[in-house]
Amino acid sequence: MEEDWGKKGKDREKDKEKEIETRLRKYLDRDKNGVREQLLRLMLSGEKYTTSEIYDELRRKGVEIKTRGVSAMIGLMSARLGIIKMELGNKNRYFLKPEYMELVIRVLDEYAKNRE
Question: CATH number, domain at 15?
């Protein structure tokens, strides 16, 4: 009986990851100017960032964006995709959940190949 619960739990995790992968692909498909891809690549560093730090990093890479745009993207990636976690503090810091690193790398690699 315990094995059944373990199997069901693993199946649910795979289903959840597949759903996140599908949403992430759709999210990137709507990336008109590359800002979403750049944000995801930044988050792959494993660092924790405030929205102003993310804004500064993206601007440094030549991405045209407003601070409100950064907040909107972070909110969407957190709420709809579920791959960003927030660390509460004086200034909230955001980071990519470690369990989704490999998934994001794989999807970004495929996305880059498809654009070539």
Answer: 1.10.10.10
